[in-house]
Amino acid sequence: MDDLRSTITQLLSGMTFTLIIFFLTLVFSLPLGLLVAKGRMSRNRILSGATRFYISVMRGTPLMLQLLIVYFGPWYIFKISLRDLSVGSLDYRYVATIIGFSINYAAYFAEIFRGGIQSMPQGQYEAAQLLGFSKSQTFFRIILPQVIKRVLPSVTNEVITLVKDTSLAQILAVSEMFIAAKALASAQVSVTPFIVAGVFYYLMNGIIEIGMNKLEHRLNYYS
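Now predict its structure.
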């Protein structure tokens, strides 16, 4: 029991940065994904082609590889010292982790948003124009609220996947929960830390699923 308590305590400490990765990735990737989606639907062929290529690369290569490129790229490509890229006392490996996760998930969210936006009837745009709404007012006040309602189940799936993908931060030696579980399992010569970590991931996803289901039910005001 003492080992179990010690394991839980240390994993909870490692869980702090797991949650930081999770929340900051959502903060940056959701609005970035919306911007990429708009660029993907642009009539400008250069912008549309660039965003299409970005999405293709992000979805077609492993997240682990992207994290390594974001971390080592500044040095190998531009000869920039990684120490110079640190933010205050925050080591660049943590910054690179957030950047890598954000640009990866933005690509997935972009395609989800694009599908939701393109599913909206053209008549809504025409009606808004007749009522005197500008393009930005039409999008943010009429289209976007409906798009959020439509894409919420798909976004929920990606958010749940994000929780599990945070374990990939170990590739940059970031002290998140999974790397703490590996260290404890090695020290204790036991699989218990992995089981406890699995329970923590499951509980996190359970909380997210319950919250997103409630939000989906709340937005489903016509049912």
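DSSP finds eight helices and no strands in the chain.
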